[in-house]
Amino acid sequence: MSNTSRTIAAVVLVALLAPLVAACGGGGPSAQPTAAKPAGQATAKPAAQATAAPAQPARGGDPSDRVSQAYTLLMGESDKPGVLASFHLELAETAPQYNRESKAVETTKTNLKADVQGTGVHLWIAEDDGTTTEGYVIGSDDYVVQDGKVEQNVMAGVGLTWAMSQLSPVIILSLAGLGAKPAGTEAIDGRKADAFDLDMAAADKLTLDTVRAFIGRGVTVAKGKAWVDQETGALLKTALDYEVDLYDSTSSDKNAPPLGHGAGHIEIAVSKVGKVTVSLPK
Predict the structure, then answer these.
(1) Do the domain assignments include residue 52?
(2) Could you say which DSSP state residue 156 is in?
(3) Inside any domain, residue 99
(4) φ/ψ of residue 164, rounded to 5
(5) Greatest CA separation for the chain
(6) Is residue 279 a part of any domain in this protein?
(7) Which of helix, strand or coil describes residue 84?
(8) What is the number of domains present in the chain?
(9) Which domain, by its residues, includes 20?
(10) 200 with 67: CB under 8 angstroms?
(11) Whole-structure pTM value
């Protein structure tokens, strides 16, 4: 990921929210976030610690419902934290992207690690040049770490990266989960989990078409496996494969043919539940 393009993306998101619109209905299941190096100085402040929602027994129920709810239960909504007090997350995605200059489908990569506690996130973002950008998202504030010092900088795009890295998982997991089938139980990092085989091809066609009318334009294949925490219903692990037709998100012609077709892969793993803390360095 290039550092300059994340800064540009942050400006566009603040101004028009265009990347989110394009991600859900334009050139594929998600726009690809890119990292930016920090600039600007601010005094670090303590991380706001939110209390996780009470865990509820989650076994049983419709497989599709459990899978579709699992990611939201893990990540929470807006300023409401997820059901796990804290956790470590690792996310890796390869995604297709149409290059207008070369007129070819290319592959972009997203790799990040995060400690999450309430509404606080400590992020490590792998860059294309082999370096790692470290940062924090504390509530609505973005911080980056440079030369061992914490700097507040909303334009660094750390929060943008965190937000946009969740777009593809939400879309692909939702579509694949429509065809969820129980696949036994397993232990994921010491926690009991219900496993599900996922394939949107097994979903009810009317339901699938209805969902795709709102998200996942052009997604032709979405399948894989998910592991859902028995105690809370939160997602603990998933591996997803998908294929998507790539459209021109800037075109006003909704009937325009796709510019290309590509395949992507997503992996998410949760560990260290209740064992990590997030706070800004003193």
Answers:
(1) no
(2) G
(3) yes
(4) -75, -20
(5) 55
(6) no
(7) coil
(8) 1
(9) 3-46+57-271
(10) no
(11) 0.79
Secondary structure class of 120 (helix, strand, coil) = strand
Question: Which residues fall within 8 angstroms of residue 45, CB to CB, at 6 or more apart?
Answer: 138, 141, 280
282 residues of the chain, pLDDT tens digit each: 444 334 333 333 333 333 333 333 333 463 333 333 333 334 444 444 444 444 444 566 799 999 999 999 999 987 789 999 999 999 999 999 999 889 899 999 999 999 999 989 999 999 888 889 999 999 889 999 988 899 998 777 899 999 999 999 999 999 999 999 999 999 999 999 999 999 999 999 999 999 988 888 899 999 999 999 999 999 999 999 999 999 887 878 878 899 999 999 999 999 999 999 999 987
Q: Is residue 51 domain-resident?
A: no
Nearest residue to 195 via CA among 181, 174, 211: 181
* Nearest Cα residue to 172 out of 237, 116, 217, 108: 217
The CATH number for 24's domain is 2.50.20
CA angle at residue 85 from 53 to 174, to 5 degrees? Answer: 70
Spatial strand order in the sheet of 235-246: 149-152, 141-146, 132-138, 120-126, 104-117, 86-99, 260-271, 235-246, 219-229, 191-199, 181-188
Both tokens assigned to 217? 């334009």
Instruction: Name the one residue in this structure whose structure tokens are 């859902």.
Output: 228
With CA atoms as reference, report the closest residue to 19 among 150, 154, 148, 166.
166
How long a stretch of residues is the chain? 282
